[in-house]
Amino acid sequence: MTMKFLARYNLYIFTAIGLAIGIYTLIAWPSMPVLQRATGLMSLAVVLHLWEEGRFPGGFTDLIANKLNFTAKSRHFGEIVTGILVIVVLFIPFFFPQIVFMQVAALYLGFLEAFAHVAAIGIFRLKKPYSPGMLTAVVLMLPIAITGIVIGSQQGLIDGLDYLWAGLYLILALAIAQFTVVRSSGMPYSEFLGNIAKNIKGTPPTVQ
Predict the structure, then answer these.
(1) CA distances (Å), origin 5, targets 2, 49, 52, 55, 106
(2) d(Cα 139, Cα 134) in Å, to the nearest integer?
(3) Is residue 207 part of a domain?
(4) Assigned domain for 41 exists
(5) Helices and strands in the chain: count of H runs, count of E runs
(6) In the chain, what is the straight-line distance between the N-terminal and C-terminal CA atoms, in Å?
(7) 49, 113 in Cβ contact below 8 A?
């Protein structure tokens, strides 16, 4: 019952959480640390990003599936895993502003998403200069990430190890989420990565 409920309403649940964090950020803005402010704003941006990717106009999941010959266990399963990733990388860090590397990891997500969506145009040889999710990634997430990290650095809130641990934290979370979705479909993870490489080279991917 729980899985069916999450499968049907997962995006609405994550939207409610993101909006709550965003509203709280705006209310508590004067007393909130800079990096926590940026993480709160990123929560709002990610909510809009998920809607752009999956609903309006949507189609990012289908794009990945078609271009990599990858058939997910179910669309909803992938959305649930993505939601859990957002909770781990973004929502949880918001409530622990004293753990700086987690705040930085949340902001790194803005750089990663902007790069991934712009790169998808060339990798998948899209006819239009747009991939679903690119607008919110470039216009909202990237500026928040840049501003948060620049101000945090200028104020001496971030040191070298924070940057390192943030990168490792984000990479690990992404790898686990991606591996879970890919393996649930029955495709070997190595084959999935190989198909990405083949798309970059312009060669046909392996058929699942």
Answers:
(1) 5, 22, 22, 18, 27
(2) 8
(3) no
(4) yes
(5) 10, 0
(6) 31
(7) yes
**Number of domains comprising the chain:** 1
Task: Supply the pTM of this predicted model.
Answer: 0.86
Looking at 28-159, list the stretches that DSSP marks H as alpha helix, in order from N- to C-terminal side: 34-54, 60-67, 75-86, 92-94, 100-123, 134-136, 142-154
Give tens-digit pLDDT for 123-170.
Answer: 888 888 999 999 999 999 999 999 999 999 999 999 989 999 999 999
Q: What is the span of the domain harbouring residue 61?
A: 2-201
| 189 is a domain residue | yes
| Domain assignment of residue 208, yes or no | no
**Which is nearest to 92 in space by CA: 114, 116, 109, 112?**
109
Q: Side chain identity at 136, as an amino acid letter?
A: T
Cα angle 79-19-21, degrees, rounded to a multiple of 5: 105
pLDDT in tens, 41-74: 999 999 999 899 888 887 777 777 776 666 655 6
Q: How many CB atoms sit inside 10 A of residue 89's CB? A: 25
């809009």: which residue's tokens? 48
3-state SS class at 115: helix
Classify residue 88 by its DSSP letter.
Answer: I
